[in-house]
Amino acid sequence: MREEPGKNMWLWGTLLLSCLTILIFVFAVMELVEQRFFRDLDYRQLHYLYITRGMVSSVLLASWAVWFVLKDRRKSEEALRRSRERYRAMLANAADAIVLFDNMLHVLEWNPQAARLYGYGAEDVLGKPIPTLDAKSRREMQDIVRRLQHGEPVVELATKRINRSGEAIDVEVRISSFRDVESNQVVFLEMASDLREQIRMRQRALEMEKLTTIGRMAAGTAHTLNTPLGAMLLRIEMLQDRLRGHNCADELERLELSTRFCQDFVQKLLQYSRRSETNLRRLNAKELLDSVHTFFQPTFQVRQHTLTCASSLLREAVIWGDRNQLEALFAALLMNALDALPAHGAVSIGGAVSDGRVELFVQDNGSGVPDEKLNDIFEPFFTTKNAGHGTGLGLSIARNIVEEHRGDIELTNNSDGGVTVRVSLPLCNVDELVSSPTQYEQ
User: Fold this and answer.
1) What is the pTM of this model?
2) Could you say which of 130, 163, 178, 398 has the lowest number of CB atoms within 10 Å?
3) Residue 187 φ then ψ, to 5°
4) How far apart are CA 377 and CA 394, in angstroms?
């Protein structure tokens, strides 16, 4: 450890003055003793007396100097120990990942945040080349080191670091240099903050902005197309009445089906872009499912499919919900399941109460969804159906309805084929009626 020049001067000055004081005191005391008790000594005895005086003075001065220096050393060591502990605590509790390295890019310090971010423990990296740099980043870091050595105070940039599993991590780094007091060499300090969450939020905001723009465009397009499509359907129906039995009747029927598909797509666009008012009431979950089952049972029978309902466990389950929207939710889920069923397929709906929530499901034995497409299944305009057989808005509308009811929706593939859609809704809490009386109706 290098001492400061001012501190050295103070130490040696204090020691010199204290030694002079001790010498003066010892010589004064010895002089008084000599005058009082040894006045009649001869030359030889006086000589031995002076030698004794010098030895006593030397021993006292040496003892004092040793004690003084050791005391100051202990004080310096204690200050150094506290400084090191403070330094270690700062490293351990810093918000950023901190890496201290030399001009050869060998690690000198590695704090716990760096271990958590990169996956390497301090024992794995100390004294070794920085393991988070690939070839490109290493050249970039060497260039930064040269810039800092030529007087640039700080270098800040957004870059990438490689963690232990080989994943590239987006980080923002701030690199500076200083002279190490122990080795008297220039070392470099990198402070890195994880940018992954900020990038995800930024991408999410861009996606939301994009979806908002798409929604506005869709609403405008739907309003523009709705009227001419209605007029086209009316004229097609008029032509069908006039040409009933004509050989072009089949062509008109196909034209009507295509036009109705376009009209249905436009209506769903309007429904998706227009946020409806949610009128929440106390609903019995069993009655809701039984009503949905009764309504859709004939449709399944006509198509020679089976629809079953297991709602007995929901007898006492009461939720806050908008009946129209929840029926629209199950209509979208059941129609999706119906389109995916094989010949003589089966769909079951039901639910139970678990941990203060109502867990509802729609399960089918259809074709299922490719695993790589599961993450996108609720996105607007995304569909796994063939062209002309789906708008890609049904599940997106279903998700919006569930979120308006403060619930969660999840779609998973069954091990034996088909999919299960699970909808989780909170049970009715009477306290909510008191805290927000305008939001709920009996």
Assistant:
1) 0.42
2) 178
3) -120, 170
4) 10
